[in-house]
Fold these 2 entries.
Entry 1:
Amino acid sequence: MAQETEMRAKKLVHEGSTIHKEKPFVYVLSSKVRTEYCDFCMKKGKFLKCSGCHYVYYCGKICQKDAWNVHKFECRNLKRIAPRTLPDAARLLARLIHILRKGGDLTKSYYLENCFRMYKDLMSHYPNIKGDQQRMEHFTSLCAVLFDFLGDDSLPNSAELMGMYGRMCINSFNIIDQELQCLGTGMYLGASVIDHSCNPNAVAIFEGPILHIRALKTLQYLDWSEIRISYIDVLNTTKDRQKELEAAYYFLCQCPRCLAPEPPEINAAACPNDQCDNYIDAESASANDKCGKCGAAITENFLELFKQVIEFTDIHLQNMKQLAYFDVCEICLQKQRGVLHKFNIKHVKTLDLAFQSSIDFQKWDFARTYALELVDAFHKYYGQMHPITGLLHLKLGKILVFEEKDAFAFDHLTKAYQILKITHGVNSTIFKEELIPLLQQTRMTVPR
Ligand SMILES: [Zn+2]
Ligand SMILES: [Zn+2]
Ligand SMILES: [Zn+2]
Ligand SMILES: [Zn+2]
């Protein structure tokens, strides 16, 4: 018997297999999408408004009924504070308080047959939070909101509340849809065991609020201490990734990618000779240096221009953190042309925003151009086996189908197929309902 268990544990894990599936311990739908998605199952569709609070929407009676267990305690209060609304973090914390009070502290979430995690196993990072001015300000403002929302009696003491806040900050997942748009936030007790890597071997994908951890690489057997997902967007320099992880999760990332030297193009200038694809390390270059490949002169003016364009780009990337503006992206890209190397991370980030905003404005011509430029950069920085790379090929394929360039579309859809079958799975909605029909449509018209 023991041998049998061991055999099962040592079984080969194929890339693309789901190694863990879990319901959230607590979650909330983002208020930004609250009228478009069901508050319970997070599906898009026709809606029924809660007649108590007039605030939350459900896709139907079944979801409304299933949601009531948690919603009943907040419904009356949501109505009372209207027209004010509750910030998402406060709503999540209020739900956490309620769930713990109803015995949630005894919930066991299994990630293996005999391994589980409970609420108390989550790290609270109490001292870190206490020393973090930004988080403490956020916490103080949340306390005031919660006091108003729940009343003094139902509020735990402040140390307990801060423990909850810390666990929420450190262990929350962004719940994303299959196109990676954020729909909400949730805590998953079992999956919180998984550590971070900037070069992960697994990925978190969601079906509604249900979390799926999928293997991106074939593993000899399932060893949880070796499973890594990425907590952040890895389209960044090592320094910036480490800074972000340290600020949000209080650890210095020492993953193999962070320890390895960076690609030299990541901060580089383009060669001033537009026929040459070499990169120029502008930080160490001085006037009168020459391009190592074509011999073009690096002038003082060129180095000064590079500095200006980087500063200009920095300001606008910072301003567009919440919302990208197509015109601003275009201006940045014009300035970057011939000055920043095509793999310069700031150029890639600008292109990415330009691509997203051109899709929002249905400027397909621009979207196609940007996406084609992004392909190599995404393969370089995200890697081939990454949901973002797969989705780029899918979106590009879709645009090309729309433009009736079917043969070309077929190439990108085929690449999307190879990636999404691993990252999302053949049973995912995006795979079955978007990719497959598009592939069939182009396959029919592509000359053989
Ligand atoms: Zn629903
Ligand atoms: Zn309600
Ligand atoms: Zn790292
Ligand atoms: Zn050159």
Note: The chain has 15 helices and 16 strands.
Entry 2:
Amino acid sequence: MDINSYKTGFITLIGRPNVGKSTLMNNIIGQKIAITSNRPQTTRNRIQTVYTDDTCQMIFLDTPGIHESKNKLGEYMLKVAKSTLEEVDVILWLVEPSTFIGAGEQYIIEQLRSCKKPVILVINKIDTVEKSELEKYIAAYKAKLDFADIIPVSAKKRENIDTLVEGIKKFLPFGPPFYDEDTITDQPERQIAGEIIREKALRLLKEEVPHGIAVTVETMRVRGLEPDSYEEYDPDSIMDINATIICERDSHKMIIIGKKGSMIKKIGTQARKDIEKMVGCRVNLQIWVKVRKDWRDDMSQMKNFGYDIKGN
Ligand SMILES: Nc1nc2c(ncn2[C@@H]2O[C@H](COP(=O)(O)OP(=O)(O)OP(=O)(O)O)[C@@H](O)[C@H]2O)c(=O)[nH]1
Ligand SMILES: [Mg+2]
């Protein structure tokens, strides 16, 4: 590592819900940290991940999709997304491959105009369109804002990701790494476990139910060790995890539990498999379901469920 030419910087990913911000971030760092789903408003908090190689360290901030907020949770998500613009070296604005620039994009353009940081336009999901159409999309966006660069990619198929990484590097300041090379994320294991459960619920449940869900993880404990112990454990160990899914109505609770518990069982099995991969041992996962009426409009409840109202 040549310390004189080493580059380190912060990069934020912004864009409307569902454009693939979390998928892209996971694929750049090569590990699944942020959950993803085909439903808008999957990401709720800012998630930091770190990509390190011999020449640079990139600290990515994945943010909630920018959208019109309908409740306090929505307002909070918007604030998280907007506040990061001022703190970074490079902004990645992700868009769908389309020539249609609607009110949602226009709103983001307004935010970016007043911001002095380099903005790279990332046209994602190019696997879904004809390559010959790309020039049209590029031209449509170019007319709207002065971009530092425009890079079409497919986050899902990993197309052009290396070009994007090189493109970002150009705009990073010189400087030593902030984090050691093993650091991948700022998210505590407990938080990621809760998010994995929320992802399965988002993917398995229909209609309005998933948007009113929060997940808390009360305990994660390897049998035979103290809670939150940093002692090593082997792959045959069993970790007991207790988690709660919070929803807004009794009727939602019934849907989450399902006939004879079939839905909660499905959510639990899928989540357990992913959590086992993360913690590297066997997992015994117990999930409870609780109703907290209208928690998405109640600041103190939101705080209990891990949304840091003041801090962000
Ligand atoms: N075809 C295709 N689908 C993609 C691509 N990138 C992401 N997706 C899909 O788009 C959906 C949304 O992806 P996410 O990464 O959750 O999107 P997001 O922008 O983080 O969404 P929010 O967190 O809700 O703001 C998922 O179903 C992804 O699999 C891509 O390059 N091509
Ligand atoms: Mg996301």
Note: DSSP finds nine helices and nine strands in the chain.
